[in-house]
Queue: 4 jobs
Job 1
Amino acid sequence: MSFLRRKSEPEASGTSEAPVAAHDHERIGGLQTSLSRLVATGGIIGIGTGVAAIMGTQDVAAWIIGIVTAGVSVLLAAVVWSSRSL
């Protein structure tokens, strides 16, 4: 896994450590974004399951439960995955 590897120490030839620190910050930001989207996707699955369970207790036809749950899931996933803040 390349995101867990440490960069080698910079040479003593006067190179600055700022680019390495900036690169490490970008790597952590990318990992945080991926983890946030994964957690949000798990939440979408939970919301879809809850909607299906509630509709199931109201004697709604199974095909309607499937359509509503899939529609809600796709809509929420589109919002999460298109978000620039995650």
Job 2
Amino acid sequence: MRLLLVMAPVAILTLISACTTTATRTDAQDENVRRDIEAVVRAQEAAWNRGDVAGFMEAGYWRSPDMTFFSESDATRGFEPVLERYVARYKTGGAEMGSLTFAHVEVMPLGMDAAFVRGRWDLDFAQRPDVGGLFTLVFRRIDGRWRIVHDHTSL
């Protein structure tokens, strides 16, 4: 019993110390996740504004048939079908791509290899009415790179 009374405070202090160390480490790691994912989002924005739909996709989306994109009442599965959707809407027949801006981007790490991202997107057009809406993204770190595995975009 005496040994338990002596060891209990030591165990509690060790546990508190471990939690404090983990929280500090996690905060720094979370900030790295936020920075890395923000860089992916900005690379997508830059590719779009260069008129590079394929570059937009390659910068962020998971090249997999399991990647999903939900918008309006449509659900599209797979990297290639999503790319085809973007090309049909914004590149076919001289369609205007517009200037893309992502705003209010919030990255919430869900661990070392997953994150939830939300924000606003706006497309400014020269020849037609501007459009915009909200987005929710699920990112995973796959082969060392942050990839969008699910995109839910609304108008």
Job 3
Amino acid sequence: MTSGKTRKRAVFPGQFDPITNGHLDVIRRGVNLFDELIVAVGINPEKREMFPLDDRIQMIRELLKDTPGVKVQKYTGLTVDFVRSVQATTILRGIRDVSDLRYEFQLAMTNRAVGGIETVFIMTGDQYALTSSSLIRQIVALGGDVAQLQSLLPDVVVQRLREIQKKYLKETPPTPDAPAT
């Protein structure tokens, strides 16, 4: 990079609970658009967490340790405030479908109006279009086969989900649908 040129820094915010191959796809393609990409791991007060914040950060750092130009940081509060605090000018967001686009468009317009922050959208790879962290959490909580999620999740996440599922099901075994005979 030539001296005097402004560095392009972006923030990819999310709960990442758990991080999916779809998230990693957006990160790996997004890092090519910016000099630096900060993966900002936060808390969504409207969602229950499966992994504590520090565990999510640790997993993401491990998964991205060999990806140049990427940093992982935790944050709280408004995303636009965090973006300004790290002197970024852009938010990176992944889009899976039309529903995401509508929601993300509203956020992008608000972030530009409130914080002067632009948003760049990347369409997720089609193999990840149906991947949702919320659905993955639901599958785990209801005792679904975590092995079936291997194409959607990094190996370290699958292993951690198996551990959580064993612990969860041991503490709160599912109630049978019908009385035992």
Job 4
Amino acid sequence: MRYGKTPIIFWPFVAIWNLIELIFKMTGRLVAALLGLVLMILGVALCFTVIGAIVGVPLAIFGFTMMIRGFF
């Protein structure tokens, strides 16, 4: 909440803006976590083949880090 030097008359607009900002942040985190899960599953699936393991391991690691970033 950024109400520091905002005049009282603008507080409702600042509150609505902060609510929209919170919704966008939570949506972005959810998308990042879901995309990370999909990439991690795809990377693990690629690791079942020898040639796919070259791409699968970094993809699974990237998906895992994306999931961690989405949660925290």
